[in-house]
Specification:
This protein has 3 helices and 2 strands; from the N terminus they run αααββ. The protein is an alpha+beta fold. The protein has a domain at 9-40. The protein has a two-stranded antiparallel sheet with strand order 1-2. Strand 1 (77-82) and strand 2 (85-90) form a beta hairpin. The longest helix has 14 residues, at 28-41. It is flat, with a radius of gyration of 25 Å. The N and C termini lie far apart (57 Å).
Amino acid sequence: MASIVIRDLDDRVKQKLRSRAAAHGRSMESEARELLKAGLDAEHLSGAEFLASIRALVEPFGGVELTPFPRAAGKQRIPFSVGGRNRTTSKRGK
């Protein structure tokens, strides 16, 4: 089996690894191996595959109907005050 060394590991990450290893009754090294294995073995779905998996979960219950968010036509101005002076900007920040 191969070995690796991980340099410059953030102290916070190391502490989380130590806590997680203790919770699972493993050494930090064993926990790191399990995390790497699980992360690399995990199935990564494309956007379309992800949406299809969500659809497969909710369709048996009749699906979910979402109301489209209403959008105002054109730019909408929002007044705000800076240093006692009133100013106006669009929602898009322009």
